[in-house]
Predict the 3D structure of the following.
Amino acid sequence: MSVDRTQVLRAAAALLTRKATATMDEVARAAGIGRATLHRHFAGRDALVRALEDLGLQELEAAHDRARIDEGPADEAVRRLVAEVETVAPLLSFLVTENQLFEGDQRNEGWERLDARVSALFRRGQEQGVFRIDLTPAWLTEAFYGLVGSGAWAVQDGRVAAKDFQYMIAELLLGGARRSVEK
């Protein structure tokens, strides 16, 4: 029987975003395969998490592309980006809690590419006079990903309605990032 690796990763992502401490046995069951089959594709949890990181980064980059963050006013681009990352937000939320991905010298360059794109968006907004200049683009980038991850957990936990995800994140982020209009 042929196993679809992407299908296994999606099943693992769905489980691990709900239960970050799930065992490899639980991941195999969620994917509908045996533990031995899972281990043939992923030697252990570290290999599985690295593969999930690759999948998450691909999906995040695609979301950035779909959001066209280099186009139009920066605040509108932020709203589009929030909308596009919503589907990958639970996986992002899981990945950013996996310390192994951010320790040592094996950090995936995809994180730097994504950070650079979002930072450039906030920098552009500062240059357009839309965003505050006392908050660095790097900080606004961290705030963006923090809110997206927290929003994903809140929706998953049932504390926030899924239909409110985009609105709440965009309003809180933009409300804090926008320059005040002096009267």
Q: What stands out?
A: The chain has a mean pLDDT of 91. Residues 126 and 133 are 6 Å apart (CA to CA).
